[in-house]
Specification:
This protein has 137 residues and is an alpha+beta fold. The chain is 15% helix and 47% strand. The chain has one domain. The strands form 2 sheets. It has a 9-stranded antiparallel β-sheet, with no helix packed on it. 24% of the residues are buried.
Length: 137
């Protein structure tokens, strides 16, 4: 049973993932990805990214504590939101490749999800939708 993720002012507010522990991550064949989390209230969820177009997770370690997840949509998406997908972005790349990517993201109705942790993983995902589902076990 998947549930909607409640977003307020660009931040994920439900489920309450602040201070959740990340215990795993999987990229699936159907262009989706899942992040397994243990929430502070003891519940266990998978944060699901559907229709993944780009995904980068640097410095991933099991047991990472989530600081926040920020979601950017529509005309709010800028080049700065997708720069973390790459190392060493040159001015030419900003003016060419990244500008084209942002235009495509807008036209395809995608969102940018940025997940930050207290230490460790920095995740950037360009996808169609984000949801959560209870995790058993």
């Amino acid at each position: 049973m998947q549930t909607n993720v409640l977003i307020q002012d660009g931040q994920v507010v439900s489920p309450a993932i602040h201070d959740a522990n990340i215990v795993g991550m999987a990229c699936l064949e159907d262009k989706s990805a899942a992040i397994a989390m243990n929430l502070l209230d003891g519940s266990r969820i998978n944060l699901i990214f559907e229709g993944v177009k780009y995904l980068r997770a640097n410095n991933f370690r099991e047991g990472i504590t989530v600081l926040y997840a920020e979601i950017t949509v529509g005309d709010e998406i800028s080049i700065d939101d997708i720069v973390p997908l790459y190392d060493n972005v040159s001015p030419a790349m900003r003016d060419g490749t990244l500008q084209t990517m942002v235009a495509n993201i807008h036209s395809e109705g995608l969102m940018v999800v940025s997940l930050s942790s207290s230490y460790g993983v920095e995740l950037t995902c360009v996808c169609k939708e984000i949801s959560a589902q209870p995790r058993i076990g």
